[in-house]
Design a protein that fits this description.
Elements: H1 9-12, E1 22-28, E2 33-38, H2 49-55, H3 68-80
Length: about 80
């Protein structure tokens, strides 16, 4: 059986809940409730900076004045044979 209730955010505000998380009641007493929160695993969309970070290996030392975006674009240019 599934029951859906709406609670004021003030009640759960400190739990760090996000859409897709699951909250399970482990114990309920007279004055408090013990809950377990399972956070939904976030997946990166293809082409996002997060996806690039998840697939990049090692570390990169940036040259003076070079940004992380420059390094990423150079990585993709080399990987896919882009540029001139």
């Amino acid at each position: 059986m599934v029951t859906t209730k709406t609670l004021p955010i003030e009640i759960l505000g400190d739990l760090g809940l996000h859409e897709g998380d699951t909250l399970q009641v482990l114990a309920a007493g007279k004055s408090e409730v013990l809950v377990q929160i399972s956070h939904r695993e976030q997946t990166a969309s293809p082409g996002s900076a997060r996806a690039w970070l998840e697939t990049a290996r090692g570390s990169v030392k940036l040259a003076g004045g070079e940004s992380a975006v420059d390094a990423r674009m150079a990585y993709y240019a080399e990987k896919y044979g882009l540029g001139g």
